[in-house]
Amino acid sequence: NTKWVPLIFHNVRHLESLTNRSIQIATQNQEILNHVQQTLAINDSPKEVEHGENDPTFSNIIPQTLGQVEALSYSDVNTSSKLEAILNKESLDKNSTSRLKLVRNTPALSKPLAEPDPLVTLAGGGLPDQGRVEIYLKGVSGTLCHTNLSHFEAGLICRHLGFKGGISAGAGYFGPGSGVTWIFNASCLGRNLCAAVSHPEKTVPCRHNQDAAVICDHMLRIVSPNGLIKGKKGRLEIHHKNTWLPVCGNGWTEISARVACHQMGFTNGRLLNIGEWDGGTNSTWLGKITCTGLETRLDACRSDGWVESCTGLSPAGVTCL
């Protein structure tokens, strides 16, 4: 079965590009640091040396792709501060993002196809961290039969792919796949003691319009009043792009609280009034949420999206039962 060869080749080339980018940024930053040290040493010496805006040494050492170089006022800052300004958050964020993508993509690609573990990937989601679960095992490719895939099981799949966790998007959420349909045994993923996937019994109806889909993000957690993460009562937070963010309490209802608690594996949930939270002053929030009660995950409810403020700085609170 050669279906997966282009996918694997594309991902290997992507990893190569990310690695080269990380090396390039690290090398450029090191050159800038070396030049800053040399400049500071010159400035500390009795002889005064001035560097002009068109100094070839200065212009050659600055990587134009790393920051908003044009926005700097060269007449107001000296050479060393210009160089230090290039070592900005943007370049470091790019390097961190590349490293994170490498960590996430390497596990699946480093597993030979002949290993007992299946090769798992996400397809049809448009982003690396979400999609239909597709599996290749011993020359056979296909999709994962939903069979009420839980958020816990979806989290296991996402962690297997190098993410921090994840949730089930729902049956057929990212469209139908093709090939065989596999049955998933979550407890066996990443272990050689039992088969992580198997063919379904004839009595188990599995069609591709019910293919399992996951989102390796938007997990929920409860932060108690004393700051502990584990517990059933407290402030609700949602994971978004590697950061835990508060959920705005404006319009928060008992129905929304139940949806959130169900997602976290609890039987029921109730609204909890938190009041003003000082920690939300400079935070991004998940804006006003309105759930109908039929949703299986909080991010499926209507919301105002990711916003920079929440009226009254009052986060959503839950008591899960």
Distance between the termini: 48 Å
CATH class of the largest domain: Alpha Beta
Give me the CATH architecture of the largest domain, please: Roll
Question: Radius of gyration, Cα only, in angstroms?
Answer: 25 Å
Order of helices and strands: HHHHEEEHEEEEEEEHEEEEEE
Structural class call reads alpha+beta
Number of DSSP strands? 16
CATH topology group of the largest domain? Mac-2 Binding Protein
CATH H-level superfamily of the largest domain? SRCR-like domain
How large a portion of the residues is in β-strands, by DSSP E?
15-25%
Unreliable runs:
48-77, 111-115
Shape: flat
Percent of residues in helices: 25-40%
Number of helices: 6
Q: What count of structural domains?
A: 3
Describe the overall structure.
- With 321 residues, the chain is of the alpha+beta class.
- It has three domains: 5-97, no CATH class; 111-215, Mac-2 Binding Protein (Roll), CATH 3.10.250; 220-320, Mac-2 Binding Protein.
- The chain is built from six helices and 16 strands.
- Strands 1, 2, 3, 4, 5, 6 and 7 form a seven-stranded mixed beta sheet that branches. Strands 8, 9, 10, 11 and 16 form a five-stranded antiparallel beta sheet that branches.
- Helix 1 packs antiparallel against helix 3.
- The protein starts with a helix and ends with a strand.
- Residues 48-77 and 111-115 have low confidence and may be disordered.
